[in-house]
Design brief:
Layout lengths: L2 H14 L21 H15 L5 H13 L6 H20 L1
Length: 97
C-alpha cells in the first residue's frame, strides 16, 4: 500500500468532519464525590499487603545459593529433562483449549 494514498484518503475523511463544540458550563460550586465499598477497601488493603511483601522467599533461596557457591548443588540431566517435558505438556494442554 502506498503511504501517499493513505494520507490522501485520510485528508478526505478529515475534511468532511465537522467540529462539535461542547456548550460551556460553569463548574462553580460543584464537587465530585467517590464512595468505595467495603469490598473495594478490602482489595486495597490486600493489594498494599502484597506489594509490601517480598517476592523472594529467602528461607528457600538461601540453601540453594549456598549450595551453588560451594559447588555442592547438582541437578541431574534426567530430572531436568523430565521437568521440561512436564512443563511443555502442561502448556500444550493449556493452548490446545
Amino acid at each position: 500500500m502506498r503511504v501517499e494514498a493513505y494520507t490522501q484518503v485520510q485528508q478526505l475523511y478529515n475534511s468532511t468532519k465537522k467540529a462539535v463544540k461542547a456548550p460551556a458550563t460553569s463548574n462553580v460550586g460543584k464537587s465530585d464525590q467517590i464512595q468505595i465499598s467495603s469490598i473495594g477497601k478490602d482489595f486495597q488493603i490486600a493489594k498494599a499487603a502484597v506489594s509490601a511483601s517480598s517476592d523472594v522467599r529467602e528461607e528457600v533461596i538461601a540453601p540453594l545459593k549456598a549450595g551453588i557457591q560451594s559447588g555442592s548443588y547438582h541437578v541431574s540431566g534426567e530430572s531436568f529433562a523430565e521437568r521440561m517435558l512436564q512443563r511443555y505438556e502442561e502448556s500444550s494442554r493449556i493452548y490446545a483449549l
